[in-house]
Amino acid sequence: MDQLYGIFLYAVFLLTMGGIYAVLALGLNIQWGFTGLFNAGVGGFFAIGAYVSAILTSAASARHLGGYDLPVPAGICAAMIASALVAWGIGRICIRLRSDYLAIATLGIAEILRLVLKNEIWATNGARGISRIPKPFEHVAEPWNQVGMLLLVFAIVLVLYVLLERARRSPWGRVMAAIRENEDAARAAGKDVERLRIEAFILGGALMGLGGALMAHHIKFIEPNVAEPVSATFLVWVMLVIGGSGNNRGAIFGAILVWTIWSATEILTTRLPSEWATKAAYLRIFLVGLALQIILQKFPEGIFRERRFQTSAASVHPPPFNRENTS
Amino acid sequence: MAQQSGSRNPPVLQVDGLTRRFGGLTAVDRCSFHIDAGRITGIIGPNGAGKSTIFNIVAGALPPTGGRILFEGEDVTGFPAHVLFHRGIVRTFQIPHEFGRLTVLENLMTVPAAQPGERLWPVWLAPGAVARREREVRERAEETLEFLTLWELRDALAMNLSGGQKKLLELGRAMMAEPRLVLLDEPGAGVNPTLLVKLGDMIRRLNRERGYTIVIIEHDMDFIASLCERIIVLAEGAVLTEGTMTTVRRDARVIDAYLGGGEEEAVEPFPASVGRST
Ligand SMILES: Nc1ncnc2c1ncn2[C@@H]1O[C@H](COP(=O)(O)OP(=O)(O)OP(=O)(O)O)[C@@H](O)[C@H]1O
Ligand SMILES: [Mg+2]
User: Fold this and answer.
1) B194 and B245 inside one domain
2) Which pTM was predicted?
3) Contact state of A170 with B82 under an 8 Å Cβ cutoff
4) For position A66, what pLDDT does the model report?
5) Given CB 3.0 to 4.6 Å as the disulfide criterion, which of B121, B180, B238, B246 pairs with B88?
6) Does B134 touch chain A (CB under 8 A)?
7) In A52-69, which positions are buried (b, 16+ CB within 10 angstroms) versus exposed (e)?
8) Stretch B52-71: mean pLDDT, rounded?
9) Is any atom of ligand 1 closer than 6 Å to the C-beta of B241?
């Protein structure tokens, strides 16, 4: 019974983390899946969201900036606004770059940010990080606080899914895909490519900030390595690619699947003999890479492919031959 | 620059001393010409004469190194492509620029301006208005597909079309706009002869029924002779001469340009144009 309860709690924790990663993967899907923007700095946006919400909602501490004591929802909103603003700034400067250069620029910015978080100790408590971040439902009795957090995260994922799926199927999604496919042709069709790209970059960045904030409140602790390229950026990319770039359901499914694999490798590597312990982190990355290889062999475009929806809708119509000509 | 057309309407497009250099290469060299409203004008010239580069500059895809472009009397030199599109300059590409992983229907539906659904707030908050406009756009795209004989392919991804079908799709995108000036860069290249005749008819219809002013770059002399009264000949980035096909064809400088300026025995530079009626 106790064991079952433990498994239940673990599953709740696992799914909550998977749900938070789903928010991140949905954000990356807007940028890369819809619009073709290669953001290699996911961890940076994530960290901005995490730190902003943590600092705004935590109790006063001599070790870091804080003591604003804002309610958690306000912190989360501020986190989204802050990462959206940073995305806007980066977009203004870098969005014209070819996609490989955008990748290098975003990767570099995320690394700089991580060093800033590590070294501006007065604000962030440096490498020791910020702890005792408030968590929603934490005053509720034991399993229900965890379940409450899980439901909150899933509700957010559901709302995002509905909004983004509607956006994807709309002319907005179509014009973003057009930019992804051929930006010169999109320009020749009168589309303001720079503005639309920045819009996608901002929206994606805001979701990454949201994911960061949720993570900070869920774990109750945050340190600069959350912006580390491997655990943040790399994992989210693997999630999107495995799930199916361009497909919102794929992003969510990929996030939960890859988070499960990632957690399983943790269980595996903790059983290794102690002399292997230092190599364990690399072994986990290797195993995730292996999973990526295996899945892409079978599903080259990810498990859920991007689907063009105009398809089925159009074939329902009769052909317009017998329709009277209006022109 | 005097208006050669004299008493006619002012030209839609006036290009003055246009120059474009790529490093040491001068692709367009103080080129000047004008395009009359409501007509189909042809542009011919040997490979590398600078024809596509001129289209790129006029449509705002490339900034010029020098010179001026007047569109409907207004200086539009250096305006970006998407702004010129809304002013009414619409172009097709020599190498098809399809949206590969969009369906053929979606390729066309992307083009029209004034789509409220291209903004997120209406998508989320005013789906009714978005859907209404979307229906109009779809109907127009379906008519265009029928016109282009691409109806059967409406749900195919554009990347899977053949070369000729992609050329038709290029033309279709231009038809989805509300152009005042259409620049067609080799619309007939790679299109089979039967379809080419149809393509000519389509272009003529667009000119007559919708009143588009059209400029066509083409290497197929029959095709261009059948469509255009006035033909501009370019060589080495500048206008060599202009006139009707008959006058242009007889011009020794034109023959020279096509032969690369050699002194050797004159080979007929327009083999396709002699003695073939279809
Ligand atoms: N982006 C570019 N960078 C460098 N050189 C270019 C560029 N675009 C065109 N050129 C050069 O400019 C010259 C004119 O090219 P352009 O494409 O305008 O020729 P064209 O008249 O359209 O020829 P074709 O009939 O073969 O299409 C060529 O020598 C070409 O190599
Ligand atoms: Mg050309």
Assistant:
1) yes
2) 0.90
3) no
4) 78
5) B180
6) yes
7) bbbbbbbeeeeebbbeee
8) 94
9) no
Domain residues for the domain of B74 are 13-98+162-270
Q: Which residues of B touch A203 (CB under 8 A)?
A: 120
Q: How many CB pairs under 8 A join A and B?
A: 130
Beta-carbon neighbour count of residue B116 at 10 Å?
18
Report yes or no on B222 lying in a domain.
yes
Residues B84 and B198 in one domain: yes
ipTM for the whole complex: 0.88
**What span, in angstroms and rounded, lies between the C-alpha atoms of A183 and B81?**
11
Does residue B278 form part of some domain? no
Q: Per residue in A4-37, pLDDT tens?
A: 898 999 999 999 999 999 999 999 999 999 999 9
Q: Are the beta carbons of A13 and A151 closer than 8 angstroms?
A: no
Over residues B116-135, mean pLDDT = 93
- Closest atom of ligand 1 to B54 CA is 18
Percent of chain A with pLDDT over 70: 94
A141: phi then psi, degrees, rounded to nearest 5: -65, 160
pLDDT above 70 as % of chain B: 90
Indicate if B168 and B144 belong to the same structural domain. Answer: no
- A321 alpha-carbon distance from chain centroid: 46
Kindly state whether residues B92 and B200 are assigned to the same domain: yes
Residue B130: inside a domain? yes
Which chain B residues are closer than 8 Å to A307 by Cβ?
Answer: none
Last residue of some domain: B119, B143, B160? B160
Pair B56, B171 in one domain? yes
DSSP A5: H
Q: How far is A249 from chain B (nearest CA, A)?
A: 19
Instruction: Estimate to the nearest angstrom the gap between the alpha carbon of A245 and the chain centroid.
Output: 13
Q: What is the pLDDT of residues B222-254, one digit of tens each?
A: 899 999 989 999 999 999 889 888 888 888 888
**Over 80: is that where the pLDDT of A244 sits?**
yes
Residue B259: give its domain's CATH number: 3.40.50.300
Q: In this complex, which of B59, B142, B209 lies closest to A188 when CB atoms are compared? A: B59
Confidence at residue B262, expressed as pLDDT on a 0 to 100 scale: 45
d(CA A68, CA A59) in angstroms, rounded, equals 7
B142 within domain boundaries: yes
Name the residue among A170, A181, A326 with its Cβ closest to that of B101: A181
Query: Which pLDDT value is given to residue B274?
Result: 39
